[in-house]
Design brief:
Layout (H helix, E strand, L loop, with lengths): L1 E3 L3 H9 L4 E6 L15 H4 L8 E3 L4 H7 L3
Parallel strand pairs: 1-2, 2-3
Length: 70
């Protein structure tokens, strides 16, 4: 489980260790100002993981959003 969409390094670790399922609280667009939207997102990288990765987004979204509130 991750409170926000994994960034590149975290995504690489997920793929290298072949974690089969990722549960995401927020996507980058839900936390503007915290993440560089120009970088490759988890959703762009998951297709290149080399194995099937199941993911679910927006689990406990509102609770996670409070963690990134200004």
């Amino acid at each position: 489980y991750t409170t926000c969409e994994p960034r590149v390094i975290c995504s690489g670790t997920i793929f290298a260790t072949k974690i089969p399922r990722v549960v995401i609280g927020l996507v980058w667009a839900d936390a503007p100002g915290y993440f560089n939207m120009r970088k490759r997102s988890f959703f762009h990288l998951v297709d290149r993981a080399g194995y099937p990765v199941e993911y679910t987004s927006w689990v406990l979204r509102e609770e996670c959003r409070k963690l990134y509130a200004p």
